[in-house]
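Morning F.,

Quick status update on the modeling queue. The single chain you submitted on Monday has been processed. Sequence for confirmation:
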Amino acid sequence: MLFPTIFFGVFFGLFALFLLLLMRARRAPRSLDARPRVSILIAARNEAATIERCLTSLLELNYPAEQLEILIGDDASTDDTAAVVSRFIADKPQFRLMLIRHRLGTAQGKSNVLAHLSRAATADYFLITDADMALPPNWVQTMLAAAPEGVGVVTGVTTADGGLFGRLQGLDWLFGLSIIRLLTDLGWPITAVGNNMLVTRAAYESIGGYEALAFSITEDLQLFDHIVSQDWGFRNLVDGQVLGVSVPQPTVQCLLHQRKRWMKGTSRLPWQLSGLFGLYGAFYMVLFWPGMLPPLYVVGLFAAKLLMQTLFLLITLRQVDRRESLHVLLFYEFYLTVMSVAVIGYTLLPVSIQWKERRYRWAEG
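Structure tokens below.
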């Protein structure tokens, strides 16, 4: 009984600590009075079905249109992405479509598109998002308020919506990003998320831009690592004012492809986050190890985990001004367990990573 006692003591002790930190976490700074010019960068490949939703949300930002420069890079799409964008921006001078057909330096894929857009941008602040995201009206000014002099990168928070499968993916986003925010608030540089990110021009140019970096399919983590290595500050925000809503993955297979791509970057994650995820992932392995614990203990430990996890999600949801039904919050435990096992198994399969109709070898990066 010594090992499970130590394991669950550490597990629930850390969980209780994180709940306390979450309840005391600072909110995002309120927006600045100044309205500097900003460049919003969107890399798009085969996004004809989703990009108009993204562009509409950017059109509705509470920010002076003359201070916005919204650059969309079409990455050799094989669908009607360019045509959809062209129609939408025809009478909107703050938008500009760029057709990306050649490489800059070592950049490939999304990194290459962002390298082109960054070179074309004219502002001192780059706000980076994805074509399947919808951003809130006060996104720009709230992100700017979190980037005083010396801060090079700011990450907002993301969720997803839709049916049950989409809402569970949304809870996954919120759970992971809330943990990352807490670690960041403790002063540990963890990571950034490329669908909701601010990077200052000075920080970006200090590392030579994406064209100077080795190719990586987790380009957001790579960019964050290099910027932090140059002693730039960083912030992670969990607040409704910067909550981006992503289109969820439509099928389990698509979700597995996405998560396998993310798993490529886990080897680069700081030990604090890798250790927490490893501890979390080992919960059921220890709980159900044959002969280790009496059935009553198993039930009690499971109930304690479910209670603390649900409370963590409820507090996080309140911080981003969202609500979710209790039965979905409880069902998230089943989803998390099944998907964790499936993602690990799929990641170990010796198959290439597929994304946006492109294949990447697992060894690349």
